[in-house]
Amino acid sequence: MAKRYGGKFSPDEKAPSDTGTPKRARAEVDPAGGRINVMFVPPIVLLATTFSDGARGLTAGLVGAGLLALGAWLLREGVQAEAAYNVRKIARRPAIPRKIFAAILTGLGAATAVYAHLGSASDLLSPALYGLCAGVLHIAAFGLDPLKSKGMEGVDTFQQDRVARVVDEAEKLLAAMTDAIKRAGDRRAEERLAVFQATARDLIRTVEEDPRDLTAARKYLSVYLRGARDATIKFADIYARRRDDQARADYIALLDDLDQNFAARNQKSLLDDRSDLTVEIDVLRERLSREGVRLE
Fold first, then answer.
1. So what's the pLDDT on residue 129?
2. pLDDT tens sequence across 55-93
3. Nearest-angstrom CA–CA distance, 13 and 243
4. What is the mean pLDDT of residues 164-191?
5. Distance CA 159, CA 166 (A)
6. Boundaries of every domain in the chain
7. Are 183 and 240 in contact (CB under 8 A)?
8. Are 36 and 72 in contact (CB under 8 A)?
9. Phi and psi for 150 in degrees, rounded to 5?
10. CATH of domain 157-290
11. Number of alpha helices (DSSP H) and beta strands (DSSP E) in the chain
């Protein structure tokens, strides 16, 4: 669907002057890019080249294509999980080593593909060697999954689990908002929503790094985000039916208010953390002074 181009100096007489966005949304790049998508090509090629090779060749081709496709899908999931792990300062290792399983499946798929093209069904050494090489090359190209958690020293795992549940729900709400706003087909509303989502994710990261902030931020990450999702869905439905400029202005004003409130909550959490550190330092200094230890 074509979208009308607009900029700072572009004429827009019909649209009311919306509140200017205080900041730009971060550009998010899909970690599973082109080189991951290329891994879905070998299964198609294998099917095409074994379709007329008889029962043995076709069966082996189907099995090999299935293994390769499953390996490519697991690789995509593993790369995305690793990207989420790298973004966070405190993160648990992935529960399932998807990239390792992807390498194993790719090796098995390559071995099955070689077997499907062999003239002799008794030669199993060649497929095994090709499969081993494919698995090793897969690991060399895409690496392994994170095998240990980071930043978890001294963290209450029970509290961290509570945070994980709230964060997962918040991310689902943000994703639902992204899907809903696409129906409106309005670039300005999409950009403003992206800015608010970046602010909301800043608060999410703050809560992840210090689970003690969950109690204060839970209302923002559940009640307010759920209300924002419902408002986004209603706006998208209304604006898709009729290009109501007033509805867009009201929706953007709502996002402005939410953005300011989320940013203020995040800033307060950071200040509270700093105050807690100051108190702990003062208490430590007092204890040391009682014991006759002087700090230079």
1. 94
2. 888 898 999 999 999 999 999 999 988 887 887 766 778
3. 14
4. 87
5. 11
6. 34-142, 157-290
7. yes
8. yes
9. -130, 145
10. 1.20.120
11. 10, 0
The model's confidence at residue 17, banded by pLDDT at 50, 70 and 90, is very low
Give the separation between CA 220 and CA 175, rounded to whole angstroms.
16
Q: DSSP string of 227-285?
A: HHHHHHHHHHHHHHHS--HHHHHHHHHHHHHHHHHHHHHHHHHHHHHHHHHHHHHHHHH
Q: Answer for the pair 198, 257: CB distance below 8 angstroms, yes or no.
A: no
Q: Report CA 220 to chain centroid distance, whole Å.
A: 20
Question: Do the Cβ atoms of 73 and 92 come closer than 8 Å?
Answer: no
Instruction: Please say whether the beta carbons of 149 and 93 come within 8 A.
Output: yes
Cα–chain center distance at 270: 24
Which amino acid is it at 145? D
Distances (CA, A) of 253 to 42, 170, 204, 215, 249: 50, 21, 22, 27, 6
Please answer whether residues 265 and 34 qualify as being in contact, where contact means their C-beta atoms are separated by less than 8 angstroms.
no
